[in-house]
Design a protein that fits this description.
Elements: H1 2-14, E1 48-59, E2 62-75, E3 80-91, E4 94-110, E5 113-127, H2 129-134, H3 138-145, E6 147-158, E7 162-170, E8 172-173, E9 176-177, E10 184-192, E11 201-211, E12 214-225, E13 229-236, E14 240-249, E15 253-262, E16 273-281
Antiparallel strand pairs: 1-2, 1-16, 2-3, 3-4, 4-5, 5-6, 6-7, 7-10, 8-9, 10-11, 11-12, 12-13, 13-14, 14-15, 15-16
Length: 287
């Protein structure tokens, strides 16, 4: 019954005049799809939480930073999961906060293949008193200080070692579209885990994002050693390279670090991004 109610809710939300934006920027985006795809956690068996923090890095917008929190609570007998994400992002003098609640369901296709679908509803709060005070146009100032809402959806295909997913977010502000006839942000991501006879396993990753007429590509790989230590690299198609490292503790916690550096002609204003992450799995038997 809950699945039927869920899909009815999907239809209701999609016909609403949703508005708002969702475009957080963090270096581990390629390996943490749950922040951009509400259906990614649809196969989780145990509650889990993730935390991200990046320092105040410098680019053309000024000093920037990010704090993100995600939580997922699955209900196995319903094949359903409930989630929450909170992303607090500073971009120069602009402070943006996105909070999203989501629900996901899964459907078994074959022995090792599943489809998951997720839907989220979010609120965005933008606070920039400094810019507002300096703008002569009241309508322009409102763009930086108003609150907005949005919906997000995600569809994923999981097999034994493969994942492919797409996430869609609305990007409409005050009934005016950002770019021509586009009012969506599209995220496409995937991975395949090559399990070797001996450690390490190798997992290629990709991420594609389309927003405001611009395409963003990212390719990388992760190497996992005995399910304890993980390291890898990713390249973004505008002269940016990203290094990852993570260690698993007691099979329930993963502490990660990443460093993103832009090495093209714009490095004179770019200091790079140091980012820390913590992922915790909370098995039901410990609750």
């Amino acid at each position: 019954m809950i699945k039927y109610c869920f899909f009815i809710s999907c239809l209701v939300l999609f016909v609403q005049n949703v508005k708002g934006q969702f475009l957080p920027e963090f270096s581990q985006q390629i390996k943490m799809p749950e922040f951009i795809n509400p259906g990614y956690n649809g196969l989780n068996k145990d509650p889990s939480a993730k935390f991200l923090y990046s320092d105040n890095y410098l680019n053309s917008n000024g000093y920037n930073g990010l704090l993100a929190v995600g939580y997922n609570f699955p209900v196995k007998k319903w094949a359903t999961g409930f989630g929450f994400t909170l992303i607090n992002e500073s971009v120069g003098e602009i402070l943006k906060t996105n909070g999203t609640v989501s629900i996901s369901v899964n459907k078994k296709i074959s022995k090792f293949t599943y489809l998951t679908f997720g839907l989220g509803f979010g609120l965005e709060f933008i606070d920039n008193s400094e810019i507002k005070n300096n703008l002569e146009s009241v309508s322009s100032a409102k763009l930086f200080t108003s609150n907005y809402y949005y919906t997000t959806s995600g569809l994923n295909l999981f097999s034994k070692n493969m994942h492919v997913g797409i996430g869609v977010h609305s990007t409409q502000l005050d009934k005016k579209r950002y770019f021509k006839d586009e009012f969506f942000t599209y995220f496409l991501n995937g991975s395949y885990n090559f399990v070797l006879s001996e450690s390490p396993s190798i997992k290629p990753l990709f991420l594609y994002r389309y927003y405001m007429g611009n395409s963003h590509y990212e390719l990388g790989f992760l190497m996992n050693f005995s399910k304890v230590f993980e390291t890898g690299l990713a390249y973004r198609f505008k002269g940016t390279i990203n290094y990852f490292a993570a260690i698993t503790l007691f099979k329930v916690a993963v502490i990660g670090y990443s460093y993103l550096y832009q090495f093209d002609e714009s490095t004179y204003f770019y200091e790079g991004i140091h980012e820390l992450s913590l992922a915790i799995k909370l098995p039901y038997k410990y609750l």
